[in-house]
Design a protein that fits this description.
two-stranded antiparallel ribbon; 2 domains; ribonuclease P activity; 5 strands; RNase_P_Rpp40; alpha+beta; ribonuclease MRP activity
């Protein structure tokens, strides 16, 4: 009857709202960024930073940790790895929600268009996090939460369209394929 259709409309409306991703934009000014060379994953002293150094730096930026190594900071004395360059303006976009792989590919393609004109950026990153308490992670394995529930991957795309793919999983999870 009428009660059933009212319930149906209530749930469908609220489920749609729950699945709609939340998007936030922020501009980071005067951001120290690692210098990267697409063909040098290990990095070279005074020339470029390694993939591990970038990954650590990215974690600090995404969590809005200060990068200026102040001894008075109770949170972190982390500083940007060397060599680095100060970027006057960096854009950070965060999309939170349930996002299907096809949308991630579409987003990556759109980001690569950013290297068109004007050619300001040398590289950009796209990080995809699984939910920490997700029941599955990579392959068909259960996801071991244990400490941090890590399951994420990160694309680093360079101006010449070379890219790095970094993956992180918890100690009790299967490695990605």
């Amino acid at each position: 009857g009428a009660e059933g259709s009212t319930l149906m409309s209530y749930f469908s409306k609220n489920q749609i709202q729950a699945l709609k991703p939340k998007i936030t934009f922020s501009t980071l000014r005067d951001l120290p960024c690692p210098v990267l060379q697409s063909n040098d994953l290990q990095g070279k002293p005074e020339e470029s930073c390694s993939t591990e150094e970038l990954f650590e730096w990215l974690g600090a930026v995404l969590n809005q940790v200060s990068l200026d190594n102040k001894s008075s900071s109770f949170l972190s004395t982390y500083c940007c790895p060397e060599p680095n360059t100060v970027v006057e303006k960096a854009f950070l976009c965060t999309i939170t929600g349930f996002i299907i792989p096809e949308k991630i590919i579409q987003l990556l393609e759109q980001l690569c268009c950013y290297f068109g004109e004007p050619k300001l950026a040398y590289w950009l990153t796209l990080t995809v996090h699984g939910f920490a308490d997700s029941p599955v992670s990579w392959r068909e394995s259960e996801h071991g939460f244990h400490k941090g529930g890590e399951n994420l991957y990160n694309f680093v795309v360079f101006r010449n369209l070379d890219y790095w793919l970094q993956m992180a999983v918890g100690a009790h999870d299967d490695c990605p394929p």
